């Protein structure tokens, strides 16, 4: 199964969501379904405290690396 993220204009959200729900064999996870647990928040907070700006790369570079790493 593939994972797809789409952006839907606010005014179309409910109608598009209702249409998608009619399709069998798909799973819909709305944004508010992605809640971090306290332990996940703690891990992220710790990473922020112990990291410096030099430890990070821009999202565009990370995305490029991930795509090349997982190319078939």
Characterization of this structure:
With 72 residues, this protein is an all-alpha fold. It has helices at residues 13-21, 38-50, 59-69. The chain is extended.
Task: Name a few traits of the molecule.
single chain, 72 residues, 46% helix
Estimate the global geometry from the Cα principal axes: extended
Helix content: 40-55%
The number of distinct β-strands equals: 0
Quaternary structure state of the chains depicted: single chain
Proportion of residues in extended strands? under 5%
Instruction: Assign the structural class, choosing from mainly alpha, mainly beta, alpha/beta, alpha+beta, or little secondary structure.
Output: mainly alpha
Biggest β-sheet description:
none
> What string gives the helices and strands in order?
HHH
Radius of gyration, Cα only, in angstroms?
17 Å
Helix count, per DSSP?
A: 3
Task: Please sum up the structure shown.
With 72 residues, this protein is mostly helical. The protein has helices at 13-21, 38-50, 59-69.
């Amino acid at each position: 199964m593939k994972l797809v993220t789409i952006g839907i204009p606010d005014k179309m959200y409910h109608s598009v969501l209702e249409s998608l729900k009619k399709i069998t064999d798909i799973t819909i996870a709305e944004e508010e379904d992605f809640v971090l647990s306290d332990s996940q928040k703690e891990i992220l907070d710790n990473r922020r405290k112990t990291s410096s700006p030099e430890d990070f790369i821009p999202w565009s570079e990370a995305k490029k690396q991930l795509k090349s790493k997982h190319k078939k």
